[in-house]
Amino acid sequence: MDTSSPNFLIIKPSSLGDIVHGLLVAQMIKIGRPLAHIDWVCRDIFAPLVARCPVVDNILLFERHRGLRGFLGLIRKLRQRQYTHVLDLQGLARSALIARSARAGKIIGRSDAREGAKYAYHRRAPLPPQGRGAHAVAILAEFLPLLGLPRDVIPRLSFRAPGCLDESPLKNGAAMLPSPQDEHQATCSKQRAKRSILLFPESSRPEKNWPGYELLTNLLLKTIPEVCVVWAGARTMPSPSVPSEACFVNRSGQTSLAELPDLLSQARLVVGNDSGPLHLAAAMGIPTLALFGPTSPARYRPYPGDDLTNRVLRAPQDDMRLLEPDAALESIRDML
């Protein structure tokens, strides 16, 4: 095993699902190069999650809301460091400019980079045999052989405990899961551990959203009464109408990115659209049911796509409105 101490800069500012895929590759770098130091260029809104991942040693914030001033501030910080390798996992003009601005021995980028980014690289990771239709993780794994590492990726991310984070702007001091507001919520919270079915009823793109979560929730509470159904997500959503005695908890809009791994770790199964939390759950080894419509499962399904722990249910005609709640229920019952 190579015991040298290379310094890596990984550029993957967004989005959440793409960052999760990048963290899986960073983990393989740490396994193959245990003494490696890894810096990560990340958008500030995703940094709290990246900060909890032990494979990343330092985060350089890309503060997009600050415009040119924020971008130039990032470049100045990069110029103060020296890297043996820069890996541009994003493959766009902006990420390529960041890569080129770093003081680095080698700059490696994607062969499918766009916006002229490929001209910034010293080497380009080839596409897998499946080409552009390959899974996103398989595309990023092609960086590993260029570092002298096998392209195998282990889908088991771990995260630091919240108390292990250094005091910094990334640690926002947010409380863990909100305290239950009544006795019924408290009972549900006790029952939820390791038995909950966690639903994420939203994604970043409206066409990927499924309108059947309320019906599915009631079907689950009726047919599998021994489980607790929990809603979560970045946006607050109104609670569905459920029986008063049912074990249902609505945590949507109440969990920060830094707290998301803790919430996911309590779940027996995670159900959602093609979204970042679903990819994070799969990367943590939590079973997932992914509801797909317009996006390609071959490229974006939760990794690894083995149908045993990570199953895909495709909407008829790629239209999420045509996906029946009974079909989702059947898949959930089969997985449980």
Question: How are the secondary structure elements laid out?
Answer:
Elements: E1 7-11, H1 16-32, E2 37-43, H2 47-51, E3 58-62, H3 67-79, E4 82-88, H4 93-101, E5 103-110, E6 123-125, H5 136-141, H6 183-192, E7 196-200, H7 213-223, E8 228-231, E9 248-250, H8 260-264, E10 267-273, H9 276-283, E11 288-292, H10 297-300, E12 310-314, H11 325-335
Parallel strand pairs: 1-2, 1-4, 2-3, 4-5, 5-6, 7-8, 7-10, 8-9, 10-11, 11-12
Describe this protein's structure:
The chain has 2 domains: about 150 residues, 3-Layer(aba) Sandwich (Rossmann fold), CATH 3.40.50.2000; about 150 residues, Rossmann fold. Strand 7, helix 7 and strand 8 form a beta-alpha-beta unit. The protein is built from 11 helices and 12 strands. The protein has a 6-stranded parallel sheet with strand order 3-2-1-4-5-6, sandwiched between helices. A 6-stranded parallel sheet has the order 9-8-7-10-11-12, sandwiched between helices. It is α/β, with parallel strands linked by helices.
The CATH class assignment of the largest domain is Alpha Beta
- The second-level CATH architecture of the largest domain is 3-Layer(aba) Sandwich
Biggest sheet, in brief? 6 strands, parallel
- Helix percentage range: 25-40%
Unreliable stretches (pLDDT < 50, length at least 5) are: 165-184
N→C terminal distance:
40 Å
Rounded mean pLDDT score: 88
SSE pattern, N- to C-terminal: EHEHEHEHEEHHEHEEHEHEHEH
CATH superfamily of the largest domain: Glycogen Phosphorylase B
Q: How many domains make up the coordinates?
A: 2
| Strand order, sheet with most strands | 3-2-1-4-5-6
Question: How many DSSP helices?
Answer: 11
